[in-house]
C-alpha cells in the first residue's frame, strides 16, 4: 500500500505539503499542487478514510435514504440511487445507503453520529415526518421529491403536477372526453406520497378546466389486480376511451386485457403512461409517455448538495419540466355512435 511519505518523496515535497493538498487547509501554489496530484495518480495513493475523517472532522460520505417498498417501482429508485452514487464519486464522496423503514430514527442516527456529512432523502411524502428533524439540524440535505411545505428545504423533482396536466391535454387534443387513470397501489396514496398526489392533482385540475370526465382508480399492479380494476372502470364509465397509467406494474396487464376484450390500441382506446422510457418502448404497444428523468434527478440532487457542503448553496425547489413523447399507443378518439 502506498503511503503519504512515498507520495511526498515522489513529488519532491514534504509530507505536510501532501497533507495540505489533500485537506485543503492551507493555500498551496498551483505548480506544487499539480505535482502532488500527479504523484498521487501515478502511485495510486488512497488516503485512509478514518484518518482523513479525524483530521478534517468530515467523513466524505453522503447518506442516501431510499426505502425499498413493495408498492414502489424499484428499478426507478435504483436508477436514481446509481446516479447519486456516480455523481457523489466525481466530487470525492461515497454513499451510505439506508434502506430500512426507520424514517425519523435514521435521520437522528445520521445527524447525531457524524456517520455522514450530508443527506439525500427519497420517497418524500407531503407531510413527511422526517422534515422537522432536517430543519432542526445544520447538516446539509436535499430531497428528491416535493413535500407540501418546502420552506427551508432544497428539493429536486419532476414537475408531476405539470406531468398530469400534460397527459390530459394530449388526450383532450385527440378528442377523448372520458379518461380513466390507473394509479399506483392504494398504499402509495394512503401515505400521501408526493409524486403520486401531485400527478393526480394535475390530472384532475386540467381535466376540470377542459371539461373532461376523469376517473381515478388505484391498482396494485399485476394481471389479477388489473383485471378487477379495468372491469370496474368500464362498469362505471362504459364510454372510457383514454387511459393514463402511473403504475409500471400495471402497464402490460392493461394492454393484454384490452386485447382480450377486443379493444384495439389506439383505434378504440388510447393509453398514455408516466414511466421510464425503457418501460414505454418495450411494452407490447410502444407507449406514448412522459419519462421519469431518474438520472437527471439524481445528478441534480448531488450538485445542489455539494454546493451546500461547499458553502455556496441555498434552499430552492428545482422542478424538471415534463416531456411527452408520442408513440403508437395514442390516437384520435373513436367516433361516438
TrEMBL record:
Keyword field: DNA-binding, Transcription, Transcription regulation
Entry keyword RNA-binding: no
Gene Ontology MF, one: DNA binding
Domain HTH lacI-type residues, every copy: 2-56
Domain HTH cro/C1-type: 3-32
CDD domains: HTH_LacI, PBP1_LacI_sugar_binding-like
SMART domains registered for this protein in UniProt: HTH_LACI
Keyword DNA-binding part of the UniProt annotation: yes
Descriptive protein name: LacI family DNA-binding transcriptional regulator
Species name: Streptomyces ardesiacus
